[in-house]
Design a protein that fits this description.
Strands 3, 4, 6, 7, 9, 10, 12, 15, 16 and 17 form a ten-stranded mixed beta sheet that branches. Strands 2-1-5-8-11-13-14 form a seven-stranded mixed beta sheet, with helices on one face. The chain has helices spanning about 5-10, 230-240, 270-290; strands spanning about 25-35, 35-45, 50, 60-65, 80-85, 90-95, 100, 110-115, 120-125, 130, 135-145, 150-160, 175-185, 185-200, 215-225, 245-255, 255-265. By secondary structure, it is mainly β. Helix content is about 10%, strand content about 45%. It contains three helices and 17 strands.
Length: about 300
């Protein structure tokens, strides 16, 4: 059993909770048993939990839906999520609804997530959109360690929430940091550090060189041995017909695996979901033999 799995048996106090109390903690270890991916360990505490697992097709990939019964993140809230996908297992992790960040007087709300992927493991992260309302301050720190043969697909949309004056960008700060490492012969090596910081009070974020006149932002991060320039070019061509502004880049290659980061700007959550859905749908069909996602939630 891995070190992360051992830690999930008895979560107890951690460095993540040393500076502020945890409002919710979720720990999930997915393994492969009899041809299907299943939870071999599961723990939840406070305002985080998962719904009953289900399977969208016959591939054996398990789908879990993460739930925050409180409905929103508030000031000084801390949520901790630990996910491990063991060798050969496959997990689709989504959320029941949008993550809403309300006013955070006094201190920011925060989510800290740790992800560990074993040999040949697959993880798809497909949360609903993140909505930041007036005077919201939010930090999301995700630390990812992948095996050179594992596969990671992460898609996320950020939207400004409603404000009384009808204007966008009334939140104070959004900081989303993804740190991705690849396991090597001498330990994990940094593959990519993806840091997104938006602070509307410090200046106009709508102009050239930032949001380019758009209000919504979509991100797609892919780490897989099959990522290359040809795939990047194909995804760029695939997204050309959408009402969005696009940027795409590749990381360096470490021990045979490469990362891809796609940023897209639009004025519509639906348009960004369609664009990201087209990209993930292509990868799901080509790499995993699965249909495009159709996550109907009620």
């Amino acid at each position: 059993m891995s070190s992360l799995a051992n830690a999930l048996i008895s979560p107890g106090p951690s460095s993540a909770s040393a500076d502020r109390p945890e409002m919710g903690r979720l720990a999930l270890v997915i393994g492969k048993r009899a041809g299907r991916s299943v939870a071999v360990q599961q723990f939840h505490q406070g305002a985080l939990r998962v719904l009953r697992p289900h399977y969208l097709d016959g591939s054996g990939q398990v789908c879990y839906v993460m739930v925050n019964p409180g409905g929103a993140y508030l000031g000084a809230d801390l949520y901790v999520v630990d996910v491990e996908v063991e060798a050969g297992a496959s997990l689709l992790l989504t959320t029941q609804s949008a993550t809403k960040i309300y006013r955070t007087p006094g201190s920011f709300a925060e989510q800290r997530m740790t992800i560990l992927l074993g040999e040949g493991a697959e993880l798809e992260l497909a949360p609903d959109q993140l909505i930041a309302y007036r005077d919201a301050c939010y930090r999301q720190n995700t630390h990812i360690t992948v095996h050179p043969t594992s596969s990671l697909i992460m898609a996320e949309v950020i939207t400004p929430g409603w404000s009384p004056d009808g204007a966008s960008f009334r939140y104070r700060e959004l900081r989303l940091r993804n740190e991705i490492h690849v396991e090597g012969d001498h330990g994990a090596v940094l593959l990519a550090l993806d840091n997104l910081l938006i602070r509307p009070p410090l200046g106009d974020v709508t102009g050239m060189g930032f949001m380019e006149g758009y209000s919504h932002l979509g991100s797609l991060i892919v780490v897989d041995p099959r990522v290359d320039q040809a795939l990047a070019d194909e995804l760029r061509g695939l997204t050309a017909g959408y009402d969005a502004y696009l940027g795409l880049s590749l990381t360096r290659t470490l021990t045979g695996t490469t990362g891809l980061v796609l940023r897209s700007l639009s004025n519509s959550t639906e348009e960004l979901n369609r664009l990201l859905g087209a990209c993930t749908g292509l990868l799901r069909e080509r790499w995993y033999g699965r249909a495009a996602l159709n996550l109907r939630k009620y």
